[in-house]
Amino acid sequence: MELYLNATSPYARLARIVLIEKGLAEAVTLKWCDPWADDAALLKANPAGRIPALITEDGTTLSESMLIAVYLDGVSPNKPMIPSTCLGDVLHLAGLGQNLMDAAFTTVIARKHYGNEIEESELGLRRQRAIQRILKQLDGELKKTFASSVNLGEIAIAVALDYLAFRLPEVRWKEAYPQLQVWHAGMVATKSFQQTAFC
């Protein structure tokens, strides 16, 4: 298998963490690329030019991090990332993580192309409110201590929180939500998060 990615995409990081957690890291060749440069190989794998993009062993191409995660969960016998015993709860958390990731990533890209003043636009303000609402909800829901085995929802949330700290430190979510910080610290201390840290 081949995975197209870069080192700063939260979406690519989510897929890579799932690879590691599922014991598939050795079965995948990492194809580092710049999705903004219209990389020819990436465009062949995903004409949208987005990462991550996975080429499976039979040559099928998959895009979108959550869909790639579902596929990887199904091809490895390791403990499931989306356990059927708590399917609704896991997908609920995955949705919150995905939405937080989307709001943060869109903010970063908008600033890159239009400057920080874009945050005063209606869409910019809407993204800021969404980030704060999601953080508040996560702080209320993630009360349990970190477990040694993680699921896709927890991975999505931890990646999104790490991306916020990496790209939007002014949000200062760790100071505002110390309980959430404790939960997050346990997640990012794991091998799969250490090996894929943003840089």
Automatic annotation (TrEMBL):
Q: Which residues form the GST N-terminal domain?
A: 1-80
UniProt keyword Transferase, yes or no: yes
InterPro entries xref list: Glutathione-S-Trfase_C_sf (IPR036282), Glutathione_S-Trfase_N (IPR004045), GST_Omega/HSP26 (IPR050983), Thioredoxin-like_sf (IPR036249)
Q: Does the keyword Transferase apply?
A: yes
CC annotations in GO: cytoplasm
Keywords noted in UniProt? Transferase
PANTHER family cross-referenced by the UniProt entry? GLUTATHIONE S-TRANSFERASE OMEGA, PTHR43968
Q: What is this protein called?
A: Glutathione S-transferase
- Species: Vreelandella arcis
